[in-house]
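help with these C-alpha cells:
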Amino acid sequence: MKLLPLDVDQRNVEEQGPYMPDVVIAYDQYGTGLTAKLLVERINARIRGCRFDLHLWRLDVLTFPSCQIKAGEQAGKADIVIFAVQGEICWPETTKQWVRSWISEARQRTNALVALIAGNQQNNTDMKHSAAYLYLEEVANQGRMDFFPHACRTSDELIGDDLRHRATYITRFLQECLN
C-alpha cells in the first residue's frame, strides 16, 4: 500500500491531481455499510490531497455472477478492502467464492483488510472470538494483507442514529419551504 503523509504537498496535487487509493467496501446490512462509508468519509476529510475511490458491494448481490466478477476485479486491485459485517455472520458460499476469486491477486500487492465488526462485543477482545473476525483474519493471512479489526456498534444503533440525524437536519430546500 502506498503510504500517504497527512499533509500532501499542494504542488503535487495541482500537477498530478489528488491521490486516489481504491477502496472496496463489502457489507452485509445497511447499518454496517453506512459505518464503513462514514469512516472513509471522515478519513477523506482529514487528509488533504487524497480522495478515496469507493466501490460498495452488499454481500447478497454477490450471488449474481456478473456482480461477483466485477467486485472481484475491484477487490483484487484495491489498496484497502473493508468488510463491514455482523460479528456472528454465517458466511455464504458465494461470499467465500468471491474472496477466493481475488485473494491471489491481492497477495501480489501490499494492501490492507479492515474488519468493522458489529455486534454484542463489549470490546476488541470479545470481537476476536466472533465468526466474522476468525474468517477475516484467515483471509488477511492468505492474502498477505495487513489486518485491522475493529469492533463497532450494531446496525440497529447506526440506523437509529442516521434517522435521528435526518430528522433534525434542515436542508436549504426545506428551510426555504418553511419560510
